[in-house]
Amino acid sequence: MGKLVEVLERAGYRDGETLFGAPYDFRYAPAPPGTANRVVSRFRQRLRELVERASRTNGDKPVILVSHSQGGYFALDFLNRSPLPWRRRFVKHFVMASTGAGGFVLLMQ
């Protein structure tokens, strides 16, 4: 992910202004639908707040979510559980880099 951040910074993105990170401890898998997981719930809430703050900081523009590796699954889970009006308001694009999109399917259903 470090190289991607470097490329984005060279393209003009600035850490804390137009470029934000949401690291996640991969040892905590998202809970299956209908099952609670405090760690994942806290992460989703913090990610929602980060997306909203990033949008506000940048003139209320929707954000571009970029994920890497297993982070793609967590971001997809987050988006799938977010209401459609919220997604339309705050997320312009979702990019999954190096995510094995063919795997991990049962957990995401």
UniProtKB/TrEMBL annotation:
Q: Biological process (GO) annotations?
A: lipid metabolic process
Any one GO molecular function term = O-acyltransferase activity
Which Pfam families has this protein been placed in?
A: LCAT
Q: Which domain of life is it from?
A: Eukaryota
**PANTHER family named in the record:** LECITHIN-CHOLESTEROL ACYLTRANSFERASE-RELATED
Return the protein name.
Uncharacterized protein
Organism ancestry: Eukaryota, Viridiplantae, Streptophyta, Embryophyta, Tracheophyta
